[in-house]
Amino acid sequence: MKTLYVLNPNSSEDVTARIDLAMQPLRGLGVPIACKTLPEGPPGIENQRQADLVIAPLLAQAATLEATAAGFVIACFGDPGLHGLRDQTTLPVLGIQEAAVAMAMTLGQRFGVLAILPASIPRHMRSFGAMGVLDRLAGDRALNLGVGDLSNAERTLARMIEIGAQLRDTDGADVLIMGCAGMAGYRDALQDALGLPVVEPCQAAAAMAIGRIALNWERI
In the chain, what are the domains? Predict the structure, then answer.
């Protein structure tokens, strides 16, 4: 049976382990899921330059997995290499940012995004503009934590609750998106604390990919 590969474009095995744990609810649905780290990637992708630099090695990694792949998920918010990989393969290719936004719009009217750093927000906004969803965006606020900082669970969750409350109470968000794959693992606690649906983007993309694989929606 072929595998859904969830590709982490940074070199952090810790982030990949958190993504892998987030996949647990989706295992047992008939499609094996394997999470891969990109050794050539930076420790975290925090700006547009870093995102652009991982595209070539990410496409090369995907090519080596093609023969055993049922589909691919690009597990970086900002979806580096999404359109390039779609050009490279006819298999389903999902980006976690695109999938998270699509999922959020089925859960609420206005979505709020928890970014890692202020430098990430312009990259997000360009993508939201290209998707044509800016009128559904309540706000995009930064935690001011880098990817490496997200392993500090107590500090990260406290900051996520603080920023999530601002998105809810000040910006009017009725659904939240965690804007980094490194946040995987905090969804349940954040959702319980804020009383809003919270989209973990790797889960959203993998769920969509499994549906497309089951329905044989490869591109012709």
Answer: 3-95+203-214 (3.40.50.12500), 98-200 (3.40.50.12500)
Type of residue found at 35? C
pLDDT in tens, the chain (220 residues): 899 999 999 999 999 999 999 999 999 899 999 999 999 999 988 888 999 999 999 999 999 999 999 999 999 998 999 999 999 999 999 999 999 999 999 999 999 999 999 989 999 999 999 999 999 999 999 999 988 888 898 999 999 999 999 999 999 999 999 999 889 889 999 999 999 999 999 999 999 999 999 988 766 5
User: Is-contact 105 133, C-beta < 8 A?
Assistant: yes
Instruction: Confirm if 69 and 36 have CB atoms less than 8 A apart.
Output: no
Distance of CA 89 to the CA centre of its chain: 20
Q: What is the three-class DSSP state of 40? A: coil
Calpha distance 8→16 (Å, rounded): 6
**Closest listed residue to residue 14, CA positions, set 40, 42, 53, 43:** 43
Q: Which of 89, 39, 82 is nearest to 219 (CA)?
A: 89
**Residue 112: what residue type?**
G
- Count Cβ atoms within 10 A of the Cβ of residue 161 and give its class: 0-12 exposed, 13-18 middle, 19 or more buried: middle
Whether this model's pTM surpasses 0.85: yes
Nearest to 202 by CA among 97, 116, 92, 89: 97
